[in-house]
Amino acid sequence: WKNEFIEFDLISLDKAFFILERYYNVSIDVNRNAIRHCMVRSRYENENLETVLIGLQLIFEFDYEFINDNKILIKNTRCST
Asked: What is the mean pLDDT of residues 11-31?
């Protein structure tokens, strides 16, 4: 992901959030145990963090809130097992 894109190739949503934390230098507060079984496959090229969150939100139907510039709260995450 050091290039201009982020690619999630069938990884857990938990790992995807970890990658986003490192890529965008933010902290994402989420119940990681609740999302370990949620799998994601997607690619984002030259996108800002909010665009990526909106894309993931459409898939997993979660709510998110920017607490400040570098902290995000994710809640109500749902996915099929």
From this structure: 93
